[in-house]
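Risk register update: the risk of archive-format incompatibility is retired. Evidence:
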Amino acid sequence: MNSQQNMSTNSSIDDCNTPSHLTYEILSWVMVVQFMLGLPLNLSVLYIFIFRFKFWKNKAIFLFNIVVADFLLVACLPAKAYHYRHHQRHSPNDVVCKTMLFMLFLNRGASIAFLITLSIDRYFNVVHLGRRNFVKILKKSPQISIFIWLLLLPLTIPTMVKTFECCNSHGRKVETYYHDVTDTFREIVFFIQIVIPFIVLVYCTVRIVNRLRKKTVGEKTKLRRAVCVVLSVVVVFSICFLPCAVARAVLLSVRLKEWQAAEDIVVQVYDSLMVLSYMDCLLDPLVYCFCNSGFKDAYITSFCPAVLRERLLKYDYGLGTTTTTSNTNTTTSGNKTIILPIVEK
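Archived output:
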């Protein structure tokens, strides 16, 4: 029995060492770049939401929660890069490892939950226009956001196991009924958090696009903007969440069949796609711009150079055309044109 346990422990350690030093050194540099871009970007977005856009007055509470989720991710990137540089797939320190896993998967769950909520809101506003939109009611209550975070905790806690990140499930340790059930539950939670929201997202997108095609006159502008919102969420899902779920399913299959040579390759693909999934902290601001033109205008007037400011403010990202924005006042003094933002609507 002791020999079996030692073999299990050694297998766990081996599974969590990097199979290729070069691959993980490259991935560590990718995460360093993500951190260097993500930290100032998300700090600037946070500044706009709090001090310029005043999210609590502009019904953007869900967007603000996505920013908070992205900060959880950005905070983990330096430590994750450090471990990859030292040829470890996770921290050997149990507390650090569990904290990292908790924050990473809480970010993933929160980002998916609030992005899907935005898509459902657009779906009801377009497809079921005139009916009572429960999402619109929820947006006015900050308590709902707190409830969503609390609801995510039971789904995130099962992933706080060191062997989960290394996909060390089913047959990789001394199997008991308890281990088998908990491993299965963790995998089910991981896939449900991605697959079901993606199905909902595809459904909302198809219905909104069909509505746009049937609309010949009237509110085509509103419909196009709704399409841009859901398509931007589809892009985030397609790049950040779906590929790593597919790779994990392949990795589980390879490990159950004990194809060691194939496993060494699939592990690197899976970890590479997980690093790619951290791009959501860089892509989410695009969703903010498509979702709320007020945020876009406030951000441009605060951080964009004066040369580009007027041109960007006039460009409607939902339409691909130039329009006159209602969020700025233009004051002319001599040969200078000064654009003053109006944040509150």
